[in-house]
Specification:
This protein is an alpha+beta fold. The chain contains four helices and twelve strands. The chain is globular.
């Protein structure tokens, strides 16, 4: 399901590429997460409030607009069928053409015959992780006074925030999907001084999680069986590990 949702999120990213002005930091492609709706959402795609969403509760794509809405259940749908629906729906609501094309590579490929299949229990777990990440990050930003949006970046598929601690040091923090460093979902904090990763080899040990310093310079905490209190504690403790 993780792979399927990563691929499905690309429909939303492509909508940002197709319908929004390009930004140098690629933020026109990133997505929000709604704890209330349990869905990923694009930025507003038009003055009429058009938004394309990926709903984890119903495993469907939803097009919402001030002038109406449309939905496409993904279970047993092929990639070709999904593209056809988005192209027709965006033409109807925006009178614009949708293009499924990217300037980045994903760790897997998709062709027209690729078909989505629902695993309800696994999808529920993935939604819970996004909700935990969103609520924890919002609380950390509030408690620390750091300023950042919380967004999902479709390339790496992380839920993340990025904030400046001072004129020289900034931190990224969030939830990452399994990768070459950690083979399961994990929370992370990484610090940068004038854009360069900060060596953590001499940092004080964390009460939750651990510091990494090879390939990735920062702190990680395995996400499995974690609650909001633990995640917030990890984030704040790791942030405080960097020089103010």
């Amino acid at each position: 399901m993780r792979k399927q949702m990563h691929l499905a999120a690309q429909y939303l990213a492509a909508a940002g590429i197709s319908f929004l002005p390009k930004k140098d930091d690629d933020s026109h492609t990133n997505l929000g997460w709604s704890n209330e709706k349990q869905q990923m959402e694009t930025h507003r795609l038009s003055p009429n409030g058009d938004v394309l969403a990926l709903d984890y509760g119903t495993f469907s794509l939803i097009w919402n607009s001030n002038s109406g809405s449309a939905a496409l259940p993904l279970n047993n749908r092929s990639h070709a069928e999904v593209l056809k629906w988005i192209q027709e729906t965006s033409a109807a609501f925006l009178s614009k053409s949708y293009t499924y094309a990217f300037h980045y590579d994903l760790p897997y490929t998709i062709d027209t015959s690729f078909t989505y299949h629902l695993d309800e229990s696994e999808l529920k777990e993935l939604a819970s992780l996004r909700t935990l990440a969103q609520s924890s990050l919002e609380k950390v930003l509030k408690e620390t006074g750091l300023e950042s949006d919380v967004r999902i970046w479709p390339h790496h598929f992380d839920s993340g925030a990025y904030a400046s601690l001072n004129d020289d040091i900034a931190v990224g923090l969030g939830l990452a999907i399994p990768d070459a460093m950690v083979n399961e979902h994990y929370f992370y904090v990484s610090g940068y001084e004038k854009g360069k990763g900060i060596d953590t080899s001499n940092f004080k040990n964390l009460s939750l999680g651990e510091w990494k310093n090879e390939g990735f310079e920062g702190a990680v905490l395995i996400a499995d069986h974690r609650n909001k209190k633990e995640v917030v504690k990890f984030f704040i403790e790791a942030i405080n590990g960097y020089p103010a």
